[in-house]
Amino acid sequence: MSIDIKKRFDRIVEILIQLQSKRVVKAQELADRFDVSLRTIYRDIKSLEQAGVPLIGEAGMGYSIMDGYRLPPVTFSKEEALCFVATEKLAEKYLDQTSAAQYASALMKIKAILKSHDQDLVTNMQDQIIMRKQHVPIFPEKVPHVLSTAIEAIANKKQITILYQGIKDDTAQHRVIEPIGIVHEIGYWYIVAYCLQRHDFRQFRSDRIDDITSSEIPFSKIHIPMDEYLSSQKHPELPKITSRITVTREFAPYIRWQRNNYGYKSERKSGDKIEMTFECRDIEEEFPRWLMMFGDNIKIEEPEELKHSFKKLFQAIQNNINSIV
Question: Coiled-coil regions in this chain (predicted)?
Fold first, then answer.
């Protein structure tokens, strides 16, 4: 079998798998995924039809498989089987108890169709991959179903009630929300939802939810899709300002640990010191506050604005110390 024929065969099999995994699949979606032309996709779809796969195609909608038609599961490769171990460990760490249990159940069914030697590989690897828990829990122990409840509400377009303590709240507040999506960033899950109390969209951090209750009440109105919401949250970015500092060689490793979070660009040796260059947007607050941790081992070379911000913070700290004394 030539390489081109094998590539086409593999692609057609992958197309069939995708058609079985979604109700409707658009031709452009397939073309983008496999990096081929629409004409190639149409030819592959024709091949599936000639092979007896009952496909339904609607102009402008996409393709779907006739209800009731399913092929036996496709065999997984050894590499794909080993990936199950890592994803299972990730689920244990980043999903709530209910969602993790549901995922484990689904994954068990997938593992059941693996070949015997692949099952042994997966079993032997389970104890070799360790995911350490976060110091601060992602979900409150008393609410083990935050994520699963939110996902179900999003799918069914039903309201949920939460007991939520925001960063400025003295006590937890009851909120009725209509969730449209979930975001994971900076180590936490955030439920993006329309809040009926605030009459606007808000993001609710998972570890601040003290209670969550599903309901059968449908959404009060049609909401924007998640991608449109995320686009609306983007603010005009400030221009990047080049900053340069020098640090002792002995202390440089401590700065390297977090420097990529602050626009790090490059470094070079300068005598007995290391010179680091950054391109950062916020040199008034965020960047100088981070540098303050290493103040006794660094020297700010440029720009003057960063030096001024650093001195201003240092003066404020000194004033606070003097007021204590």
Answer: none
Residue 56: per-residue pLDDT: 86
- What CATH number is associated with residue 220? 2.30.30
Average the pLDDT over 62-71 and give the result. Answer: 78
Burial of 219 (0-12, 13-18, 19+ CB in 10 A): middle
- In the listed set 232, 266, 284, which residue is the last one of a domain according to the structure? 232
213 band by pLDDT with thresholds 50, 70 and 90: very high
Q: Which two tokens stand for residue 163?
A: 């007991």
**Total domains in the fold of the chain:** 4
- Is 91 among the domain residues? yes
3-state secondary structure 70-108: CCCCCCCCHHHHHHHHHHHHHHHHHCCHHHHHHHHHHHH
Within a domain: 140? no
What value does the mean pLDDT take over residues 98-105? 86
Sole residue written with tokens 């058609």: 19
Whether residue 268 has pLDDT greater than 90: yes
Domain end point (choices 40, 65, 90): 65
The answer to whether residue 138 is domain-embedded is: no
> Residue 239: what pLDDT?
85
Does one domain contain both 174 and 247? Answer: no
Q: Confidence band (pLDDT; 50, 70, 90) for 199?
A: very high
Q: Cβ distance 143 to 212 under 8 Å?
A: yes
The boundaries of the domain holding residue 203 are: 146-232
Q: Is the dihedral of CA 319, 320, 323, 325 positive or negative?
A: negative
pLDDT at 99 over 70: yes
Beta carbons of 216 and 158 less than 8 angstroms apart: yes
User: Which DSSP state fits 193?
Assistant: E
Q: Whole-angstrom Cα distance, residue 104 to residue 138?
A: 19
Is 131 contained in some domain? no
Of 275, 279, 307, 304, nearest to 291 by C-alpha is 307
